[in-house]
Specification:
The complex is a heterodimer of chains A (332) and B (331). Chain A is of the alpha/beta class and 332 residues long. In chain A, 42% of the residues lie in helices and 12% in strands. Chain B has 331 residues and is α/β, with parallel strands linked by helices. Chain B is built from twelve helices and 14 strands. The chains are: A alpha/beta (332), B alpha/beta (331).
């Protein structure tokens, strides 16, 4: 059931317009997350946040293969998924700062951003907690005949949760159009995944008869090409699929996890940043293929920066919800 | 008086009729659970539904309570109105993350953007000789959580009207049926009706003492009221019908009228439904009470198997009668 994606063929059929769009999306996510870290260190953001820096190619490659009304469920490390699926940075920053203009009116925060307009069923702060929700959305799509698909993003830490296996079994039995996207960033919080994961990861979906593949999660072209194929299959009624994206979390488990030497070496981080950076890899490809020159990419980057800066300004200036709102939205 | 068509149904039949009517009315309603289709559940409450609505709407699942409850949460968010069937109420423990961290919180966490219109059927109640993992009454757990609604019908009439409301509600609702009451009969009108949540029902009017009771404890309270009548004590029996939302006003007014109150519930007494309702009455009717509010719940033990031990753990008619008699200072 498992096949390795041939990366050299992965870009076949991806036009330069889409590649440049994916470049901008990845750059925007990175700039967004750097701003989150900045807001945290300047004590402007309440609580903590889990940064997606280093993993941008996964969210962008997957979401680029989806329609706007397709569903996703996301994780505590969810800003990248939200942005890639089409959420606006200003309302996301507003949510992170607990402001009324935020996606959740300031009631959810970093770990719970949801946006029905872009099909985002919500980030989830319970590891593996949204597996059932994603399959349920796929169940609705199948029952109602809407041709939508659902993508369930989760980290390799969720491989330890029993719910995942209950739901994978159900989704195969019922042939649900759901794609399980396992982002293996190698660390379950502060523990290397090899210490928590027995056997082969892809043997797990295989046990349920769910086709599984792995892909280089730093190569957005490969992620997009593979996701497009899996999404098409799910949409055409072939049921669930499992995509293991091998990636790396550049930063700590959360913004406050700064001293990480006790669980991983600085040299390891530096190697990934120098050799496997998803934005650098795409930059090299685009310029190497002469699809755009560095000046064009710099322009895209500066446009993204202006948007992110404006979004931060919007959020900082936004107002907090009134106390009268604390009891609203408990019941529909 | 206009003639109202009424017939006797069992509580199980009343639940089934509510589900069937709602499934006919709304194609988005579906049933999901273990052995709900051809088997119609071990208690046969759902018999016949798969024949009428087919296997795409009466859906058998693997034995994966957390998994299919999670699927129902997602399905409810995206256009369906699932009713999840939890065979024994004890198995709700397996669904707690999906109900408490997901279903209950989705609407609030998303600032009202998403809603979860799902219902969960579960059983409660001991005395079936099923021991500690098939006999608990865990409705207090859900009553504790903002975002959930909790229903405890005590008659076939209430079961039907409240189930229809549960299915039409825009929020996650947990509907607890006492497994010993599925054969309990009562009048149910043929005409369409629903019963709103948060409206208590006075099952028996009285003057001297209020007995607040839930689910099968309503019959226990009514039995005690009959015994009390024989010694000249007039007991009022009030059934809140939903522990959340809770009709505090009716409970307080009844206690003010009678000046005494006992609360009877089959959940554990400690930190349970009886504690919450007693507190509501003690606070709201304090200056009208002639005695502290008395609580009678299940004994604080895992439900034992041996019949005479099991029977000792749950509130009895005699226990309620004696407590009421003592509070009214009659010998």
């Amino acid at each position: 059931m498992t096949t390795a994606t041939n990366q050299s063929k992965a870009d076949a059929g991806i036009g330069s317009e889409r590649l440049l769009h994916m470049y901008k999306q990845m750059v925007s996510i990175r700039l967004f997350e750097e701003q989150v870290n900045d807001l945290y260190t300047r004590a402007l953001m309440p609580g903590l946040a889990h940064l997606y820096i280093g993993e941008e190619a996964v969210a962008v490659g997957i979401c680029e293969a989806l329609h706007r009304d397709d569903y996703i469920t996301s994780t505590h490390r969810g800003h990248g998924h939200c942005l890639a699926k089409g959420a606006a940075p200003d309302r996301m920053f507003a949510e992170l700062l607990g402001k009324e203009a935020g996606y959740c009116r300031g009631k959810g925060g970093s770990m719970h951003i949801a946006d029905p307009k872009s099909g985002n069923l919500g980030a989830n702060a319970i590891v593996g907690g949204s597996v059932g929700i994603a399959a349920g959305a796929a169940f609705s799509a199948k029952t109602l005949g809407t041709k939508q698909v659902a993508v369930c993003f989760f980290g390799e830490g969720a491989l330890g949760q029993g719910l995942l296996y209950e739901v994978m079994n159900l989704s195969r039995l019922w042939d649900l159009p759901v794609i399980y996207v396992c982002e293996n960033n190698m660390y379950n919080e502060y523990t290397h995944f090899s210490e928590t994961t027995a056997g082969e990861i892809l043997a797990r979906p295989a046990a349920f008869g769910i086709p599984g593949e792995s892909v280089d999660g730093q190569d957005v072209r490969a992620v997009y090409a593979t996701a497009s194929r899996l999404v098409d299959q799910a949409r055409s009624g072939k049921g669930p699929a499992f995509l293991l994206c091998n990636t790396y979390r550049y930063r700590g488990h959360h913004v406050g996890d700064v001293n990480r030497e006790y669980y991983r070496a600085k040299q390891e981080e530096q190697r990934w940043m120098a050799d496997r950076d998803p934005i650098k890899l795409l930059t090299d490809w685009i310029t190497g293929q002469k699809l755009a020159d560095q000046a064009q990419l710099d322009k895209i980057q500066s446009e993204a920066k202006s948007e992110i800066d404006a979004a931060v300004e919007f959020a900082v200036k936004a107002t907090y919800p009134g106390l009268d709102q604390v009891g609203e939205d408990i019941y529909a | 008086m206009p003639e109202v068509a009424v017939r006797e149904l069992t509580l199980g039949e009343a639940v089934r009729e509510a589900l069937a009517e709602e499934m006919r009315r709304d194609p988005r309603v579906c049933l999901i659970g273990e052995d709900v289709a051809e088997a119609g559940t071990p208690f046969k409450v759902l018999s016949g539904l798969v024949e009428e609505f087919g296997k795409s709407r009466v859906i058998d699942t693997p034995i994966s309570e957390a998994g299919f409850t999670g699927v129902a949460v997602g399905a409810a968010m995206t256009g369906l109105r699932p009713v999840v069937d939890i065979m024994f109420g004890d198995f709700v423990t397996l669904t707690m993350d999906q109900m408490v961290n997901q279903a209950a919180k989705v609407h609030y966490m998303s600032g009202g953007a998403w809603r979860v219109p799902m219902a969960m059927r579960a059983t409660l109640g001991a005395s079936r000789r099923s021991a500690a993992q098939h006999s608990q009454s865990l409705h207090a757990w859900f009553s504790h959580i903002p975002g959930l609604k909790v229903v405890l019908p005590s008659t076939p009439y209430d079961a039907k009207g409240l189930m229809k409301t549960a299915i039409r509600d825009e929020n996650p609702v947990i509907f607890f049926e006492d497994k010993m009451m599925f054969k309990f009969k009562g009048p149910v009108p043929i005409e369409e009706y629903t019963i709103p949540f948060g409206v208590a029902d006075i099952k028996r009017e009285g003057e001297d003492i209020t007995i607040v009771a839930t689910s099968s404890m309503v019959q226990v309270a009514l039995g005690a009221a009959t015994l009390l009548e024989e010694i000249g004590i007039s007991a009022e029996v009030v059934d809140p019908r939903t522990t959340w939302p809770l009709d505090e006003q009716t409970l307080i007014e009844s206690a003010k009228k009678t000046s005494r109150a006992i609360v009877v519930d089959e959940g554990y007494e400690r930190y349970g439904v009886t504690a919450e309702i007693a507190s509501v009455i003690a606070t709201g009717a304090f200056y009208d009470l002639d005695a502290p509010v008395k609580r009678i719940g299940a004994m604080h033990v895992p439900v034992p198997f041996s019949p005479h031990l099991e029977d000792a753990t749950i509130p009895s008619e005699q226990q309620v009668f004696e407590a009421a008699r003592a509070m009214c200072k009659r010998s």
